Amino acid sequence: MSTILKNYINGQWIESKSDATMSVINPATGLRICRVPAGCSQDIEEAAGWANQAWAGWRNTPATQRVQYLFKMKQILEAHTDEIAEICTKECGKTFAESKAEMTRAVENIEVACGIPTLMQSVFSEDIATGVDEFVIRQPLGVGACISPFNFPIMIPFWFMPYAIACGNTYIVKPSEKVPMTMTRIFELFETLNLPKGVLNMVHGGRETVDAILKHPFIPAISFVGSTPVAKHVYQTGTLHGKRVQSQGGAKNAVVVMPDADAETTVKIIVDSAFGCAGQRCLAASVVITVGEASEKVTQNIIALAQSKKTGNGMVADVDMGPVITMESKERIIKLIQTGIDEGAEILLDGRDVKVTGFEDGNFIGPTILGKVNPDSEVYKTEIFGPVLSIVNVETLEEAIDLINKNRYGNSACIFTRSGAAARKFRHNALAGNIGVNIGVAAPMAFFPFSGWKESFFGDLHGQSSHAVEFYTQTKVVIERWNEEWSRKF
Ligand code: NAD
């Protein structure tokens, strides 16, 4: 009988109203570490009710006071980085170093949100007519909520939550049921913030909990990150219920290598991008498109470097790559590799039989590379979300851009070149929301929006930065007339 996690609602740790639970498994050992409630609509009913009550006081708390809690949040996370990173690695599988890097990204978003007193400022026009002024006020919406995926248990809620509460909204975080322990520990630590009760809440669960969020009348703004089919469902259902929704989906990111690219840097960056976090990053390079003779210059070196990466338990110091999240995920990825081979791709590096001594029940797959992948094949088009890199060869930059533009996803696209002209053409023409030039993971800093396109994003305003501030506020236009005569007569 392992621990069942609790929800955090209105400043209290509360059991879910649902009796059903799901196991949280350490993907490196295959062992259960705890259980998480499957969740139900009553949990959301309770959280949304308290968060809505708390909103009345929170929206009237000056922004300068609201951000004082965020300054403390940053200090708490920094002081507990190792402890939180260890929990993250245990439930998510990524290496300890990768978990710590994720923490840095979370903290950067808190830092940006601390600028809310300035970021919420708006425009003022004096004398639109004689003695009449017009201006815009940005006001919070009410209760916001975010629904997170498994692959960044620390960082992703911080793309939204700090901005939302700094703007005067109250909030509900719904972590992924696969990795709920990290955010639970963060919420335990955040108790020392002494935020007014009900401002920050966390509800565990899966599908039923998400659907309750999408329909609840007290929740007008929802941020989602996850796979494309669920992102679409969240966007469609949420907007149908009159909410604003920003919904980030899956990806299939291509990296173009030009013949003039610096081979050494390019190979190192591509291998880090493709196999970091076991390929379970929404900005991971999953396809390399070599142009002309670039193929000869980089392919063998990519294979050699990928082969040198050590797969194992992310808590072991010299391990480069951890396991994938679940056994089902491992089986799905192995099946897709076979599909690729059956479709005519060459297997240049095969990680399917990797063995990790002492961790025989872990969900390990070693770095895998498929060559001469056909862009019409299933393995090229499907988001694999594992340590599998496909290589495609074309003759021109235009052909490479054309392939990227035909892709249903548009999370990111990168180019490696020494030519400013090629880089410019690429950035101008590639249909993807985050572009990298000699960069392998084009992850925007917190003061830029996380700008997915096509089926990688549904909505208009993205997470992070000024977009998050706009998303979590509504504009009120005020037109004012003040007449001196009135005061004299009074
Ligand atoms: P997922 O879609 O399975 O789950 C995401 C969230 O949705 C979870 O909280 C889960 O509880 C909920 N959910 C799952 N199925 C649901 C359903 N049928 N109805 C309602 N809610 C449901 O995603 P995942 O496997 O946790 O994460 C991996 C995916 O997330 C990949 O596709 C990856 O590309 C994507 N991702 C995208 C970004 C981005 O910025 N675009 C960032 C990280 C991850």
Quick synopsis:
With 490 residues, this protein is an alpha/beta fold. The chain has helices at 41-59, 63-79, 81-92, 96-113, 116-119, 161-166, 180-190, 207-215, 228-240, 263-275, 294-307, 327-342, 378-381, 397-406, 420-429, 465-471, 484-489; strands at residues 7-9, 12-14, 21-25, 32-37, 124-129, 132-140, 143-147, 170-174, 200-202, 221-225, 244-248, 253-257, 285-291, 346-349, 368-371, 388-394, 409-410, 412-416, 434-437, 453-454, 457-458, 473-481. The model has no long low-confidence stretch (mean pLDDT 97).
Could you explain how this protein is built, in words?
- Strand 15 (368-371), helix 13 (378-381) and strand 16 form a beta-alpha-beta unit.
- The model has no long low-confidence stretch (mean pLDDT 97).
- The chain starts with 6 loop residues before the first strand and ends with a helix.
- It is an alpha/beta fold and 490 residues long.
- Helix 1 crosses helix 8 (207-215), helix 2 (63-79) runs antiparallel to helix 4 and helix 3 packs across helix 4.
- The strands form six sheets. A seven-stranded mixed β-sheet has the order 14-15-16-13-12-18-19, with helices on both faces.
- It has two domains: 7-249 and 456-478, Aldehyde Dehydrogenase, Chain A, domain 1 (3-Layer(aba) Sandwich); 253-437, Aldehyde Dehydrogenase, Chain A, domain 2 (3-Layer(aba) Sandwich), CATH 3.40.309.10.
- It has helices at residues 41-59, 63-79, 81-92, 96-113, 116-119, 161-166, 180-190, 207-215, 228-240, 263-275, 294-307, 327-342, 378-381, 397-406, 420-429, 465-471, 484-489, and strands at residues 7-9, 12-14, 21-25, 32-37, 124-129, 132-140, 143-147, 170-174, 200-202, 221-225, 244-248, 253-257, 285-291, 346-349, 368-371, 388-394, 409-410, 412-416, 434-437, 453-454, 457-458, 473-481.
- It contains 17 helices and 22 strands.
- Nicotinamide-adenine-dinucleotide (NAD) binds next to helix 8 and helix 9.
